[in-house]
Amino acid sequence: MENTIKLPEPQKELEFPLMKALEKRRTIRKWSDSPITEQELSNLLWAACGITKNKTKSAKSKRTAPSACNSQEIRVYTVMKQGVFLYDEDCHELKMINSIDIREHIGTQKMMKSVPIGLVFVADLSRMKGPLLKNLEAQRFCAWVDTGYISQNVYLYCTASNLGTAVLALINREKLHKLMDLKEEEKIVLTQVVGHLAE
Ligand SMILES: Cc1cc2nc3c(=O)[nH]c(=O)nc-3n(C[C@H](O)[C@H](O)[C@H](O)COP(=O)(O)O)c2cc1C
Fold first, then answer.
1. What are the tens digits of pLDDT across the range 83-116?
2. Nearest-10 Cα torsion for 84, 145, 62, 88
3. CATH number of the domain to which 181 belongs
4. pTM surpassing 0.85?
5. Domain range holding 146?
6. Ligand 1 centroid distance, CA of 92 (Å)
């Protein structure tokens, strides 16, 4: 297994009316066994928080999702059968963290154990600097809000692409934190499951 999965270019020309996606967006807790393709994963991760403007000498890059002070503190981890991967949005690739299948820990509800793809939204507090983010309370509030934008991007992409998704707060964060080898300043905010709709 390669340590890096280079994702195909995201299909940005996907057509689906925004107002329809908002109307149809729903939390779905059932999925089929059919695997998510690399193309779908590429689209999903780019929609979540992919780069829309490259960094320059004087300015940071921009993402599909806003973040407080453009901190871009939320890192998206992808948990799948092959292991745990970190989405590197600059290179649009997945970097392998380990080859352990930890999908059963993505959420504490029984039905989450069979999920094809789990996303873990991790706030790297060390990235949170700026006038808004002077104390831990402000950092935590903003990390939750910033996660919400990313999660909604995932919801809208899934709606437009006939995928089912659910965002989860019912998580054993301590256990997941250990399994993912995260650092002290890396905090799990929410997780989100994604799969093809059940027939
Ligand atoms: C912050 C947050 C946490 C959530 N946590 C869970 C969860 O742990 N398990 C779950 O099944 N649904 C979870 N949900 C999904 C909600 O139950 C769902 O959004 C709500 O019932 C409304 O349904 P809808 O998303 O289809 O409009 C969560 C939603 C949000 C916004």
1. 999 999 999 999 999 999 999 999 999 988 889 9
2. -10
3. 3.40.109.10
4. yes
5. 37-51+63-196
6. 28
